[in-house]
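Sharing in case it's useful to others searching the archive later.

Someone asked me privately for the predicted structure of DUF3311 domain-containing protein, so I'm posting the question and my answer publicly. Question first, with the sequence:
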Amino acid sequence: MSQAPEVSRGPVVTPVRVVIGLCLVAPFVAMLWVGSYAKTDPAFIGIPFFYWYQMAWVLISTVLTVIAYQLWQRDQRARREGGAK
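And my answer, the predicted C-alpha cells:
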C-alpha cells in the first residue's frame, strides 16, 4: 500500500526530435510553396526549373528521411539505455 504510483513517461520534446520533425516537414513545405518554383528558368540540361526542382526534392526527401530515421533510432536507443540505469 505504501508503493508510489508509477509515473508514465509520455512524449518528450528534445532538440533531436525537433530536428527529426524539421527533416520530415521540409519537403512538404518546399512542395506546397508552389510560387517559389513555378517558373521555367533556370533550365538544367534543357529541363525547365519547375520539373527539375521537384525531382531534386525526391532525392532530398530521401536523404532527409534517412537522417530522421537514423536520429530516431539513436534517440530510442539512448532512452532505453537511460531508463535501464
